[in-house]
Specification:
The chain has about 250 residues and is of the alpha+beta class. The chain has five helices and eleven strands. Strands 1, 2, 8, 9, 10 and 11 form a six-stranded mixed beta sheet that branches. The protein has a five-stranded antiparallel beta sheet with strand order 3-4-7-5-6, sandwiched between helices. Helix 2 packs parallel to helix 3 (about 150-170) and helix 4 packs antiparallel against helix 5. The longest helix is centred in the middle third of the chain and has 18 residues, at about 150-170. It comes from Xanthoceras sorbifolium.
């Protein structure tokens, strides 16, 4: 089953909220998805969060011994470079021989070999992330040297392999960005409007009567980016064709 949640990212300014919105409009919904995949919604309006992306739901780990060296891969969700550094500080083991890592946030990525030969650790970890199709993800692979050298090819296979296995079974989340919208409607059309908003599972509904226009109220809300056009068409078809929508 999937879950819906909202990450705050935008606030529509209203002067006075007087209307009590039905509680059912605020309820989070569940929809079926593929195995190991869950749904989360994002309210951020930045270009980095536009559209949708898939990330991992929770921190996961994978451990494997290769020629007496122990490799432990730990993967987690990150949102930017700062959270990546925080994640690294939480999971790295200063007692280990190496703590190699890579992360990907949109088109940005970084990797580090942490003392291993150049290109034998961080790069294959990043390749594993890229191949997984996941975004906003960091993988740290900790190695405890067991006395047998693996060689360049062996290191690439070891670091890339444990990173791939770690991500392969991680539960994933499809993150959809939210579009903040507003619409002015006559009082008599509020019931029809709310019905449409409910059918499109909008969130963060607010109402403002101080529009400066007699008999007109402003209703603001957030809706999944891929539902915007259909919602506009449905509201205009059931309310009035001349209704104007405002988007951030």
């Amino acid at each position: 089953m999937s879950v819906a949640a909202t990450i705050p990212g935008y606030h529509y300014c209203c002067h006075r909220l007087n209307h009590r919105v039905p509680a059912s409009l605020f309820s989070l919904t569940t929809t079926p998805t593929t195995t190991n995949t869950r749904l989360m919604t994002s309210g951020s309006s930045s270009s980095n969060n536009a559209g949708a992306y898939t990330t991992i739901q929770e921190r996961v780990s994978y451990e494997k011994e290769i020629k007496k060296s122990k490799f432990i891969a730990i993967a987690g969700h990150i949102s930017n470079e700062q959270s990546a550094q925080s994640f690294l500080s939480q999971v790295r083991d200063p007692r280990a021989t190496h703590n190699c890592w890579a992360y990907k946030v949109g088109d940005q990525y970084r990797s580090n070999d942490d003392g291993e030969p150049s290109g034998t650790a961080g790069k294959p970890i990043h390749s594993a992330i890229a191949s997984s199709g996941l975004d906003r993800v960091m993988v740290v692979v900790t190695r405890y040297f067991g006395g047998i050298k693996l060689g360049t090819g062996g290191l690439v296979r070891a670091y890339g392999g444990v990173a791939s296995e770690c991500l392969r079974n991680a539960p994933s989340i499809l993150v959809k960005s939210k579009v903040p919208m507003g619409v002015e409607v006559p009082f008599e059309l509020l019931g029809v409007l709310y019905h449409q908003l409910q059918s499109f599972q909008v969130e963060n509904i607010k109402q403002d009567y101080d529009t400066g226009k007699d008999g007109i109220t402003m209703v603001t809300f957030k809706v999944d980016f891929d539902k915007v056009e259909n919602l506009e068409d449905a509201v205009k078809a059931n309310c009035r064709r001349d209704i104007v929508f405002y988007k951030h």
